[in-house]
Amino acid sequence: MTGRPSPAVSAIVVNHRSAREARACVESLRAAFGREAVDGEIVLVDCASGPEEVRALEALPADTRAFLVENRGYSGGVNAGLAKAGGSKILLANADVVFLEGAVTALLAALEDPRVGAVAPLCVWDSAGTLRLPAEAAPGFVGELGLARFPAFARRTLSLWERGGETRHLVGAILAARRDVFDRVGRFDERYPFEYEETEWEDRVRAAGLALRFEPKARARHLFARSARRNPETDSKRAASRRRYREKRWGRLGRAILDRAGARPPRPLAAGIRRLAEPALDSRDGAWVAVSTNPTLIPFAGAPLAGGFRLPAEVLESLRPGPVYLRIFDPRDGRPLETCVWEKA
Q: Which CATH class is domain 9-133+171-230?
């Protein structure tokens, strides 16, 4: 960066075996910077994806690159990007996201409030933008046990999608923060090899008295779970991160309780759940559908049912074989109206 002023914003894109998705991400950022008159740089980080990926990434319109010789995980990728970033505001992004029009401006505007430590956009799953991804994870210890009440969680989710607000945790596909927040609470903990790294960092942000804000005016598309399926070590790394986070957050006993609950065999399908021959539902005015591979449907992706619903083929591509639960609910009070299940072969 010698010879040029520091940019106002540094967007750090972290890649691992996702060069095709990284191209769309970087190009969407470059277009956003130009369209929204943002003085920004793109820092492209690769976590030891191999020579073929590196060659593809070298062709992308990034300003700065950090190609790591070992896979330090998303946390290590973020930290490597921060070491090269010059901006006072930071955008962190998985490679499998696309910034939609106005997203960058809305995220940066939210950071103008000094009480806000980090902000995340509303992410959609499909190219049509109808299926919204979760605004936050399951609430606390009770949520991890699978005992959270669906109506309350659904009301909370719809409120965040529609009006935004403060949350306990932000989903980390895209996060925006000021550099002074990292200076204050530290960088990501690289002992979390896959997932939970942003959750643990957000705990530190809240402990410092700063808010986490969900901003629905900022929208992005997240190709959720697509790149994770390509990496055979994903499940073991996720499990290691989950164990570490649970023990830090709730102690050894709490972690043991949650681990034991997660090891139980799946319950038989509850009475009254309708089996679907295909992942589609008829139109129902005023109702919404929640979609999840978790039988509790917490958290869930969601869409209005006014015009009917069919799980898009591009979303199906990201899902592993197994049951997919679809719950019709009343958005006014979150009350479930009907629960269905479809089995992906």
A: alpha beta
